[in-house]
Amino acid sequence: FRVREDGVAREVLRVEKATEPITLALLVDTSQSATPYIADMRRSLETFVKRLGGKNPIALTVFGERPSILVDYTLDVPALEKGIDRLFPASGSGSYLLQAVEEIYKGLSKRDFDRAVILAITAGGPEFSDRSYDEFVPKLSESGATFDAMVFAANPPNLSDFGQRNRELFLDAATRATGGDRFSLLGSMALDGALTRVADALPNQYRVTYSRAVTRLPPQPIDVSVR
Known about the structure:
By secondary structure, the protein is of the alpha/beta class. The radius of gyration is 18 Å and the shape is globular. It contains six helices and eleven strands. The chain has a six-stranded mixed β-sheet, with helices on both faces. A three-stranded antiparallel β-sheet has the order 2-1-11, with no helix packed on it. It has a two-stranded antiparallel sheet with strand order 3-10.
């Protein structure tokens, strides 16, 4: 591994496999735009929670209409499966993705965790979060959680609309700021592969310890790469 702060190489002292449980927040779009994808989302998410549940606390939140918690953080896989079975699109509704993310990172601030991931699945369409994306990104980054987004891209966003443009800017900025990934899905069948990639990656993370200079301000950026 190679670590650089403000372009300066730092000495890597130790690398070890990260074995702590992952606090995982699943955010699922149940707006009207998600209607064609709901059945495949249920099927793919059930496989996903079977792989990662039981050892990692997982919560399920929906954001068609106002954000709502279907299942709070739990190790109980059957409870998560029951929550996934309750995923249905809300007729005539729009997305509140940014507000859902805000509620999750506020909730994480009250929890003790070593690793946390927010994974959002969005179908696009109208977005009703009315505050600018740049209000959310710094606080999300400060939460210590990684933000991953899976975006159904069959219909391109309407960038002349504030809500949809604001969501697109948020998705790019939030994944980049937290070290997450953005997956563009051309159809619902692509969700299986994207969730499998995440399920493969999360148990195979590493904790890198390195020496850093004493500074009054934290360095920006911090770049970690593999030789």
